[in-house]
Amino acid sequence: MNHAGVLTIALLFTTGLFGTAAHAAGDAEAGGKLFVRTCGGCHQVGESARPGFGPVLNGVIGRTAGSTEGYQYSEAMKSSGVVWTRETLAKYIEDPKSVVAGTRMIFWGISDQEKIENLLAYLETFQPQ
Ligand code: HEC
Q1: Which terminus of the chain, N or C, has less C-beta within 10 A?
Q2: pLDDT confidence of residue 8
Q3: Which residues of the chain have pLDDT under 70?
Q4: What 3-state DSSP class applies to 126?
């Protein structure tokens, strides 16, 4: 699905068309704004994304932790064996060290589940087509 399609669905969800599913699906647009503010200093997404202080996060859902090209991960991340699913990502965003003890990602964590859902909805728009 393309970016616009996902946003359209997110908008449908927020208008309440699908009732309680609205919450679970997250709001990709709000997630995008939050991403720029809270993750964008270290991570890039999109076609021109390059590794920065942190790795590129395109297609992160479903891949093994520490597996993008051109980024020097910590040993902890490379050997974690974690696969990034919505569940492990949500936990990592909430408390990075609880998922990968010894990760170099210094992040205070976000505990608001709605914000986490929005971030995940945004990251889902950068999955391979
Ligand atoms: C201060 C910089 C910084 C911020 C802010 C930050 N990260 Fe990270 N992130 C990193 C670093 C550094 C790593 C690599 C950690 C390692 O190798 O242990 C990383 C790794 C990750 C990974 C694992 C990627 C992979 O390829 O396995 C994910 C997922 C991730 N970050 C998501 C996020 C999200 C989502 C946010 C915002 C809510 C965020 N990060 C905010 C620096 C940051």
Answers
A1: C
A2: 55
A3: 1-24, 129
A4: coil
CA of 124 to the centre of ligand 1 (A): 16
- Residue 125's contacts (CB-CB under 8 Å, 6 or more residues apart) are 3, 6, 7, 28
Our answer on whether the CB atom of 119 is closer than 6 Å to any ligand 1 atom is: yes
Q: Which domains does the chain have, with CATH numbers?
A: 3-124 (1.10.760.10)
Look up tokens 């359209």; give the residue: 8
Per DSSP, helices labelled H in the chain are 3-14, 21-25, 28-38, 75-78, 86-94, 96-99, 113-124
DSSP state of 63: S
